[in-house]
Design a protein that fits this description.
alpha/beta, 7-stranded parallel sheet, about 15% strand, about 700 residues
Length: about 700
């Protein structure tokens, strides 16, 4: 069996045929992280039995059967891969199903295309997708490659009884295929040039600015992009490793700069991608990645359809997925390559789990990794505890005593390249919102202590209090590889100064700075920011403000708890829910415009709306010149979080930052609703609702009003 963690089972056909099916099922369950659902176990039983019957004619072949294969970095899992006579069969099982559904056919075709486009050891092989609806009474009679001449056969369908005959039919049609690489399961992730070209075309027709506010002037963003590309070129010319830290207030265009760098670095002014010059935009923010992917894919799909081109939205999503990816999948792909258990606290590559490539060594295919919201990467303790429990769901990836923080491991990952590499960290100040987020200090400490050979290019703004708690200069004082560059800060011009001023106001409001009211007075005429205690008034204000396709929505912190009496519900946590909330139009009730579902700081970080309502609950209260923080016990009462330990101090900082994020999500204006609470008493003289007493809210309301906020 392969040592790869990328599948649950990998054996030759003889082993599959000779093993008891309960033994195989046990291996699948043992290698699965978490408890496999009863339906999953039953499906596996059915698949094992079907394959033991169908594959008997090839008992003496050197073929391999692989269950639950995880396609590198894409987060997709194929039920069964059969490597037989040089052909890659992708099998998707629908156990107990007697119908063939179009969505199921699309699913197995997508797997085949993902292997063709992103899996190095599959790009030049014949790939045959087969949908097995086990109770289906028919079987495909025609086997032919797609019209795109890409080595992918049009999807085939069969029931359990016809699988063996269908495989035999394919083998007779393609008798001379070359052997599949023996390291197939640990193949590098390697996008083909065609998928990269398609991604560039897709991005260049983008409408990302509709959902990622961008108020820096073109001169500023162009200068930042040019500086980063120059650092990348120097790193290549001098065979160096380098890292850039880019700062900018919310709305300054960090996301767009990151995406533009990824595209420009890959093409460098050419019509075709430059070989071995790739870059990838990575984010740990699932909703952000989902919304960006969906927005770009929809835009591209509509434009292609208008031109009469035949293209699916799934094709568009696959293309943009080359440039925009979840950072955890990048991280986990590197984790699959290490020796496990770790000895003496030192990470080493296991050559049996990874393929050594020419210049890339054991690193990933890209030279350049652009990391959005770099301040949100995990501490060593958070990552170690996560990996100790078993890491990602699906394939087990348990690593005991992991010695690095996430920033340090990401630098280590790029450091595995044997030629050159550049990391671009896009940094939001004061926006760490999860327990265990390391902040920028951890990046700097890692560079100082573990990677002193890396060149560091840094925005001067990184020395300000909201970054690394103002410790940047102290942390960098002994690092002689540091260059400060004004170009790495995204400023805004005077015509669009709202972003800078709003950010300054929010900072002053949260830190109770005496200048907060003065800053508000400067922005209120150009950026309406009003106050109310009535949620219906807040909704009316929003509806009156939005015009045409402008978007509005309600925001709330994840610690908020008593919002249902106000007719508000919290948006479900799935990425798909965030996509609907941000992108559906005014006729879809899932849209943010309906003002029914409130999004949290987790779902909106990195994204914006035109007008927002921030519903300020009792989780953070102003009281006699300071903020006090509370968590609801889910039933009867709020409990104060006391700052009596380092972990509690960190927790309070995250709770404060949640409001910082939510207060900076609106492009054009915002209403803050601080509820009145419930002042009613029962016939016995007791409060009708002890969880919404007016005193929980009055201090916050009076403080905001004292800053001059106009009440509606």
């Amino acid at each position: 069996m392969s040592k790869s963690n990328r599948c649950l089972y990998d054996r030759d056909i003889r082993s599959l045929l000779e093993s008891d099916k309960n033994l195989i099922l046990g291996l699948l369950c043992d290698n699965y992280h978490g408890d496999a659902l009863t339906t999953t176990r039953e499906a596996w039983k059915g698949e094992i039995e079907i394959l033991q019957n169908a594959l008997a004619p090839w008992e003496d072949s050197e073929a391999r059967v692989i269950f639950e294969y995880d396609i590198p970095r894409l987060g997709k899992r194929i039920d069964v891969v059969l490597l037989l006579n040089g052909i890659i069969f992708c099998l998707e099982f629908k156990v107990g199903e007697s119908r063939v559904l179009e969505n199921d056919i699309d699913q197995v075709l997508d797997y085949a295309l993902d292997l063709k486009n992103f899996h190095k050891f599959s790009e030049d092989k014949l790939i045959v997708p087969i949908l097995v609806a086990t109770n289906y009474s028919k079987s495909s009679t025609v086997v032919q490659e797609s019209a795109y001449d890409d080595g992918v056969v049009n999807p085939l369908v069969t029931g359990a009884e016809g699988l063996s005959e269908l495989i035999e039919k394919v083998l007779k049609l393609y008798p001379n295929e070359e052997h599949v690489n023996s390291n197939w399961t640990i193949s590098p992730y390697a996008p083909t040039p065609t998928i990269i070209e398609a991604a560039r075309t897709l991005y260049e027709s983008h409408s990302v600015e509709d959902i990622t506010r961008h108020e820096a002037d073109d001169v500023t963003t162009d200068a930042t992009i040019a500086y980063i590309l120059d650092v990348i070129q120097k790193s290549k010319d001098n065979s160096e490793k380098s890292i850039c830290f880019v700062t900018g207030v919310p709305g300054a265009g960090k996301t767009l700069v990151g995406l533009d760098v990824a595209v420009k670095q890959t093409y460098q002014g050419s019509d075709k991608p430059v070989e071995d010059e790739g870059a990838v935009y990575l984010s740990g923010n699932g909703p952000l990645v989902a919304v960006l992917n969906e927005a770009l894919a929809r835009d591209n799909y509509e434009k292609c359809r208008a031109r009469g081109e035949s293209k699916t939205k799934t094709d568009s999503k696959r293309e943009v997925g080359k440039f925009i990816q979840i950072i955890h999948r990048y991280r986990d792909n590197m984790l699959h390559k290490i020796k496990n258990p770790i000895e003496h606290g030192i990470l080493e590559i296991d050559p049996e789990k990874a393929v050594h490539q020419d210049d890339a060594g054991y690193g990933e295919v890209e030279h350049v990794a652009i990391i959005d919201e770099a301040q949100r990467m995990w501490t060593q303790n958070k990552l170690a505890n996560y990996l100790k429990r078993g890491g990602t769901y699906g394939n087990k990836l348990k690593v005991a005593d992991f010695p690095m923080s996430e920033p340090s491991f990401l630098i280590w990952s790029l450091d595995q390249r044997e030629d050159w590499a550049t990391i671009v960290c896009l940094v939001g100040g004061g926006q760490e919102i999860h327990t265990g987020e390391a902040g920028i200090a951890e990046w700097i400490s890692s560079l100082n202590d573990v990677f002193p050979h890396w060149k560091v290019y840094i925005s001067p703004k990184l020395t300000e209090p909201e970054y690394a708690e103002g410790m940047t200069n102290e942390l960098l004082k002994d690092n002689h590889n540091v260059t400060f560059a004004e170009e790495l800060h995204l400023a805004v011009n005077l015509r669009s100064y709202r972003a800078e001023k709003l950010s300054a106001f929010v900072h002053a409001l949260l830190s109770m700075d005496d200048h907060a009211s003065d800053i508000y007075a400067e922005i209120k005429d150009r950026y309406p920011l009003v106050l109310t205690r009535d949620m219906e008034k807040a909704k009316d204000w929003l509806h009156q403000k939005v015009r045409g396709s402008e978007r509005t929505g309600v925001l709330i912190t994840k610690e908020s708890a008593r919002y249902k009496p106000l007719g508000i519900h919290v948006l479900a946590p799935g990425d798909a829910d965030a996509v609907h909330w941000f992108l559906e139009d005014k006729i879809d009730t899932r849209s943010s415009n309906y003002l029914e579902d409130a999004a949290t700081e987790i779902q909106v970080q990195g994204l914006e709306l035109d007008y927002t309502c921030l519903l300020w609950d009792a989780d953070m209260r102003y009281d006699k010149g300071r903020w006090r923080f509370y968590k609801f016990n889910g039933k009867t009462a709020w409990k104060e979080v006391i700052d009596d330990s380092e972990s509690k101090h960190e927790q309070l900082r995250y709770m404060l930052n949640a409001y910082r994020v939510l207060l900076t999500r609106a492009r054009k204006g915002m209403v803050i609703c601080v509820p009145e609470g419930n002042s009613n008493v029962t016939a016995s003289g007791y409060p009708e609702d002890r969880t919404r007493l007016p005193e929980f809210y009055d201090g916050t309301y009076n403080y905001l009003k004292s800053l001059g906020l106009e009440e509606i």
